[in-house]
Write a structure and sequence with these properties.
alpha+beta, Beta-Lactamase, six-stranded antiparallel beta sheet, 9 strands, globular
C-alpha cells in the first residue's frame, strides 16, 4: 500500500502511517502485528515502529488480542465534516426524515470512484450491509453515488470512472459502461437516482443531491429500505417526495451558512 508517491516532497513515513490506520475496519477491529504488516505491505519491524508511534500519539491501543484504533481517530474525519458545517445543519433534518419514513437515511460525498458516508441516522433493521460514518462503497452501485457522478462534467466523470474502487468490493458486472452513462444522464435530468439491489441483495435506496450556495452538487442523501419490505413504487411515491423536500431544506440552510460573516480576532501579545 505504501510507496505510491513520486513527488520530491512525498513523505513515505507519513504515507505508511496512514496505510496502517487504513488497515482497520468493521471486519478487522483488532489486528496482530503480522496482520497489519501483511495488509499494509510492510516489513514487520516497520509496522511495529509505526504502531508504537500511533499508540504513543493516542490513535492506537494494544492489548492481548493485538492492536485496535481508539476514538481519537474520529477526530481525523470529523474535523473535515465539521469544517463543512454540513453535519450540524443536516442532522436535525435527517432525524426528522427518519421519523417520518421509519427508514434509515444517510449522506455521502464522492472520493475518487467511491462514496464515503459523512452522516447517518439509522433505524434498527436487519440489512445486508453494515454502514457507518466513513464507510466506503463503489459510487456506481449506489443511489448516492449515481447522484454525485451525475453532477460531474463529462471529463470529470470519465476520469473518476477510470479510477479503481478502494472499497474492497468486487466490480459490478450487471451494467456496461455505456449503460451507466445513459443512466447518469437520466439521473441528471430528473434529479434523483435509484439503486435496486445493485450493492447487495435486499438493499434498495433512492437518493437526491445536496447543493452548496452556488448550486453545485456537493453531497447526496438517501433513504434506504429492505427490498422485501418496501416496493420500488412505495419508495418513489412516498419516500422520495419527503427526501426531496429535506434535501432542499438542507441545501438552503447550507447556502446561508456558507455566506455567514467570518472574521478573526488577532490578539496582541504585547498588550496588557
Amino acid at each position: 500500500m505504501a510507496g505510491r508517491g513520486s513527488g520530491p516532497d512525498f513523505v513515505e513515513a507519513l504515507a505508511r502511517g496512514l496505510d496502517v490506520l487504513g488497515c482497520f475496519d468493521a471486519e478487522h477491529r483488532t489486528m496482530s502485528l503480522s496482520e497489519v504488516a501483511a495488509t499494509a505491505g510492510l516489513a514487520r519491524p516497520t509496522a511495529r515502529r509505526l504502531l508504537l508511534t500511533l499508540q504513543e500519539l493516542g490513535y492506537v491501543r494494544s492489548g492481548d488480542g493485538g492492536y485496535a484504533l481508539t476514538p481519537k481517530v474520529l477526530g481525523l474525519g470529523m474535523g473535515y465534516v465539521s469544517a463543512l458545517g454540513l453535519w450540524d445543519i443536516a442532522r436535525p433534518h435527517l432525524e426528522a426524515l427518519v421519523r417520518r419514513t421509519g427508514e434509515s437515511s444517510s449522506m455521502a460525498q464522492l472520493d475518487g470512484s467511491d462514496i464515503v458516508y459523512v452522516a447517518r441516522v439509522s433505524v434498527p433493521k436487519i440489512i445486508a450491509l453494515r454502514v457507518e460514518i466513513g464507510t466506503r462503497f463503489p459510487a456506481a452501485q449506489t443511489s448516492q453515488g449515481k447522484v454525485l457522478l451525475a453532477g460531474l462534467t463529462r471529463d470529470q466523470l470519465l476520469d473518476v470512472l477510470s479510477q479503481p474502487s478502494r472499497s474492497g468490493l468486487p466490480p459490478y458486472i450487471g451494467r456496461t459502461h455505456d449503460q451507466l452513462l445513459e443512466e447518469l444522464a437520466q439521473v441528471r435530468a430528473r434529479g434523483w437516482a435509484l439503486a435496486d439491489e445493485e450493492l447487495a441483495p435486499g438493499v434498495r435506496s433512492v437518493a437526491v443531491p445536496v447543493r452548496d450556495g452556488h448550486g453545485v452538487v456537493q453531497a447526496a442523501m438517501n433513504v434506504t429500505v429492505h427490498a422485501a419490505e418496501t416496493t420500488t413504487e412505495r419508495l418513489l411515491e412516498e419516500h422520495l417526495p419527503r427526501l426531496l423536500r429535506t434535501a432542499g431544506d438542507i441545501s438552503a440552510e447550507w447556502a446561508l451558512w456558507q455566506t455567514r460573516p467570518h472574521s478573526e480576532v488577532v490578539m496582541d501579545e504585547s498588550a496588557g
